[in-house]
Each structure stands twice: as C-alpha cells, then as structure tokens.
Amino acid sequence: MTKGLTVATAEQIRVPETLLKKRKDQERIASEKAAALVKKRKAAKTRRVIFKRAETYVKEYIAAERHEIRLRRQAKAKGNYYHFKTSKTLQQIALKYQPHPTQAAQDSSTLASPSNQ
User: Fold this and answer.
1) Which uninterrupted H or E stretch holds 83?
2) Which of 42, 50, 77, 84 yields a CA-CA distance of 20 to 30 A from 34?
3) DSSP secondary structure letter of residue 98
4) Count: domains in the chain
5) In this predicted model, what pLDDT tens digit does every residue of 34-50 receive, in sequence order?
C-alpha cells in the first residue's frame, strides 16, 4: 500500500447542487402522484355509490310504474276506471295558474259582445 493515499468518506464527498435539486423535485412529484392517486380512488368509490343509488331509484320508479299499469288493467277488466296518482305539487301548480272563474267569465263576455265599441 502506498502511504498518503486515502479514500474519501461519505461525509467528505460533496454532491452537486443540481443533483440535490433533482432528487428533491422527484420526491415532490412522487408525493403529488400519490396524493392524486388517493383522490382518484376516493372519487371512483363515490361514483360507484352514486351509480348504485341511481340504480335503486330507477328500479323503484319502474316498479311503481308497473304497479300503476297493473292496477289500471285490473280496473279495466272489471269495467271500471283507474285514475293515476299525480304529484301534489303538479296539482298545486295547475290550480295556481288556472284563472279565477269570475275573471274568465268577464274576459269571455267582453270578447263576445262587440257592442261595447
């Protein structure tokens, strides 16, 4: 062995700044990708729940519609009529926008008699 030659230790070796910056940037990108993956999986899970809920609603509405049709057919077979259920809000809207009977009569009377001119 030759005297005076030594191998540098880990503490003595200096790492270039560009390499340190590159490592730091790679760590940041890796952590962002991991966070995005977690967010994506959570969104997919939520989406699955939403679709399952929508499927149950569709099944429920189809079953209700078929039940209404079945009741109508039974009434028709017996010679009766079946009136479908309508939403209360639709009935309220229809009632709200119908003109008052006296107002309708006044409007029709003014239109029917040309002698007022």
Assistant:
1) none
2) 50
3) S
4) 1
5) 999 999 999 999 999 99
